[in-house]
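Design review, sub-item: ligand-bound model
Attendees: FS, YL, KQ
YL presented the inputs for the magnesium ion complex:
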Amino acid sequence: MLDLETLWQFIRDKFEQDFSPITFKTWIDTAKPLHFTGNIFVVEVASDLHKDYWEQSIIPQVTSLLSDTLGKKIKVLVKTVDEEDPLAPQEKPHSTEVSLDLMGNPKKSTPLNDKYTFKSFIVGKGNQLAHAAALAVAEEPGLMYNPLFFYGGVGLGKTHLMHAIGHQMLENNPNARVKYVTSESFANDFINSIKSKHQEEFRQEYRNVDLLLVDDIQFFSDKVGTQEEFFHTFNALYDDKKQIVLSSDRLPNEIPKLQQRLVSRFKWGLSVDITPPDLETRIAILRTKAEAEHIIVPDDTLSYIAGQIDSNIRELEGALMRVQAYAKLTQQPITTSLAAEALQSLNGAPQAKELSIAMIQDKVAKFYHVSVADLKGKKRVKNIVLPRQIAMYLSRELTDASLPKIGHEFGGKDHTTVIHAHEKIADALQSDETLKKDLATLKADLHS
Ligand code: ADP
Ligand code: MG
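KQ shared the predicted structure:
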C-alpha cells in the first residue's frame, strides 16, 4: 500500500506547481493527511471555511489526480479539526475497501437530503414542466404519471426534484414508504443479494414501497442482470399502482444497451426534460442560496456571477461559495470586482484559457465515466473506444496540436489513428443525435 506521507508529498508537489505561493500556503499547507484506506483518502483541514474551499475547489482536483495516478476511483473526504473522523480506525478495519457508486459517493442507503425540497427549488423556464410533474406525482402518487422520468444534463436539478417528491410525500403521509437510490446502489444491492442469498429480502425492500426513486438510470446500461431484476421490480410496483420516478442524463431510448422492454415501460408515464436555466432563473437561484447561507451579496454581483456560469447549477452554487470564501479570506465585502477576482483566480486568467489536450482528456473521461489512462491506453472495448475517439476528435478540432502530437498525447499512438478517430466521429455526427448533444455539452463545458 502507498504510504500516506509519500502520497501527501505527491499532492503537495502538484499543487505547489499549480498554485500561487499564498494560495498554496493558505489551503494546502494548513491541511493534514489522516488516512489512505482502501480507496478513501481523508484529509483534516483547519476550519469550516477551509473545508468549504476544499470541497468546492480542491477535492475535485485531488480526486482526479489520485484516481488517474492510481488507476482506481478514489474518494477524498475532508474533516475539520473539530469533526469526527469519518474513518475512525476502530470502525473501519484497514483492509476494507469501501465500495463507491459511479458518482464517487460511498455506497450506503441514501436518505433524503433535507436541503432538496420543493421550497428550496426555484422554478424557471427550463424546469417548470419537470417541477409541475414532480408536484403532481407527490400529491397523487401512482395516479398521474407513472413512471415519471426526468432527463437532462448534469447539475440541473434532477436529484433535487426527486428528493423533493420524497419529502413532500412524507409530509402528506408520514407513514408513506419512500425509497431513494441511485441506479448504482440498486445494482450493488441486487448483486449482493445474490451473493449472500438474500434475494427475498432484496425484493421485499424494493417492492414494499409507495414511492421508488431511482436516480441516474443511465448506469443500467450494460448491466443485463440488474435490468432484468429492475424489470420485475418495476412491474410489481406498477401493478400495485405505486409511484416510480426515474432520472437519467438522456431519454430512455438513448441509453445504450437498455432492454427494449424497459425503454417501452419507461415511456408509459411522462418523460420531462430539464434544460439549463435562463439568466433570470440563475439569479433567483443564487439569491435564494445566498439568503439561505446568510451571505450578503449585492444584486449586480449576483447578476455578474449568474452571467459567468450558464449551464450547471451546481457550478453556479460553487462559484458563489468561492466568492464567499475569497471575501472571508481577504476580509473584504462581496462586490462585483471582488467576485471577478475570486472567479478569475480560480479559473486562471481569461487569456490563459487555451485548451490543452490534457484538459480535453480530463473532461471527456469524466463525462463518459472512464479514466484518462483508458483514453491513453489500448483497450478496444466499445465504452472506451468511443470516448477515446471523441477526445481525439476534440483535440484536433479545438487545439492547434499537430496530428503526431495528438497521437503522442494519447499514449504514443500513430497519427493515422488520430485521423481515423476524427473521421469516425465526424461521420457519426451526421446522424447520431445523442453524440451531437454530447459533443455540444462537452464543448460548452470546455469553454466555460
Ligand atoms: P442533477 O441531479 O440534475 O445533476 P442536482 O439535483 O444534483 O442536479 O442539482 C445540483 C445542485 O443545484 C444542487 O445543489 C441543487 O440543489 C441545485 N439546484 C438545481 N436546480 C435548482 C433549482 N431549480 N433551484 C434551486 N437549486 C437548484
Ligand atoms: Mg443527480
